[in-house]
Amino acid sequence: METSLRHTPLREWHIQHGAKVVPFAGWEMPIQYAGGALHEHRKVRSAAGIFDISHMGQFEVRGPDACAYLERLVSSSIESIEVGSSRYGLLCAPDGGVLDDLFVYRLPDTWWIVVNAANTESDFAWFEQHREGYNVDLTDVSPATAMFAVQGPEAIAIMDEVTDGAVSQIERFGATDSSIAGVQCLVGRTGYTGEDGVELFMSASAAQKVWDAILGCGAAGRAGLEPIGLAARDSLRFEPGFALYGHELSRDVTPVEARLTWACDLESEFIGRDAILARKEAGAERKLCTFTLTERGVPREGCEIYAGGDKIGSVVTGMFAPSAEAYAGNAFVGSAYSKVGSEFEVDIRGKRKAAVVVKRPLYKPAYK
Questions:
Q1: At what angle do helices 155-163 and 207-220 cross, to 10 degrees?
Q2: Nearest to 225 by CA among 186, 195, 202
Q3: Domains: count for the chain
Q4: Which of 85, 172, 159, 73 minimizes the C-alpha distance to 123?
């Protein structure tokens, strides 16, 4: 089974540098390095970290109907994205269920779409299925593309050193082409950690050269730059309230339950809009909430939640949140229990632990 797993161009580098690699979404990925996930989490919050996220999928959309085509598929307003900018959005089924969440970059001559690794093939098939009637060219460029993220308070200064000051000129959600170690890269001021930073794309064949240049520059000054694994990436995204597909989002969840109607332009006729509007007007029976335990315990995905002896929901993400110094989680519960201050119990290995719903997010994003 392991031989069928895909791997990024940096697989050998990760192993040689002490990474523990595990199967993830059909890929063999570094989950943590020798220092451990807690150290890596705090490194990103205090200084900077670099992530190899080359497992993510990327599509290119070109042609005269590209904007109209994406307006039909993606929940957010596509037409209003300026050239050199990007936007978060959702891919929804006709009944409003979320097929994936994604980022759309509008570039001078193309649209660049970033999707989740586990959904790359199904997303591309969905894009293909709805291409009829639109004059567009659609290409899955994932196999030829590597993707990194550099995140943390020192991320922009580090990236400025390898781009001759170009990155600090990019506004939040902006994107531009830049040269790093002689390699042409697309650099977006985006990220998944709640910290300032960038995500960058380059040819897979040049990935090692770019990685070495950034890591070497970051390690040379300030508090240093370190590689970060998927475990810390999960806790870093959880604290500022970012959804992870397969947890806070799924085919059985609409943006209403997931508190993501802000990512939906309900004036636009994207697939799933009518169902989302109807669900919003009717009111959702369950909603996503963030909770902290008021007694010691580690909530995990799948733990059942009870109130007054009745099961009212289940945990979709649970962990120790280092920045908040709390055992916390996200859960879908009956809407009446999703309000801040609501109390319930989380069943952890047969023992029910008291919890309270708290204001989201646990960590205020530190963007500049």
A1: 120
A2: 195
A3: 2
A4: 73
**CATH number of 153's domain:** 3.30.1360.120
Are 50 and 148 members of one domain?
yes
Is the residue at 328 inside a domain? yes
* Span 271-276, average pLDDT: 98
Helix (H) or strand (E) holding 146: strand 145-151
227 within domain boundaries? yes
The predicted pLDDT at position 248 comes to: 98
Mean pLDDT across 286-308: 97
Q: How many CA atoms lie within 13 A of 353 on its CB side?
A: 22
pLDDT score recorded for residue 1: 41
Q: Which of 181, 207, 238 is the last residue of a domain?
A: 238
- Of 112-116, 218-222, 334-338, the one with minimum mean pLDDT is 218-222
Question: Taking a C-beta distance cutoff of 8 angstroms, is the pair 162, 198 a contact?
Answer: no
Would the pLDDT of 219 be above 70?
Answer: no
Tell me what the pLDDT averaged over the chain comes to: 96
Token digits of residue 229: 């694994």
Please check whether residues 29 and 164 belong to one and the same domain.
Answer: yes
Query: Does residue 299 sit in the same domain as residue 230?
Result: no
Closest CA to 211 of 51, 55, 36, 57: 51
43: containing domain: 2-55+143-238
Which residue has 């380059």 as its token pair?
Answer: 202
Instruction: Clarify whether residues 225 and 165 are in a common domain.
Output: yes
Q: Which candidate, 43, 51, 23, 26, places its Cα nearest to that of 229?
A: 51
For residue 114, being part of any structural domain is answered with no
For the whole model, what pTM was predicted?
A: 0.96
**How far is residue 292's CA from residue 290's CA, in Å, rounded to a whole number?**
7
Joined together, the tokens standing for residue 238 give 């959880």
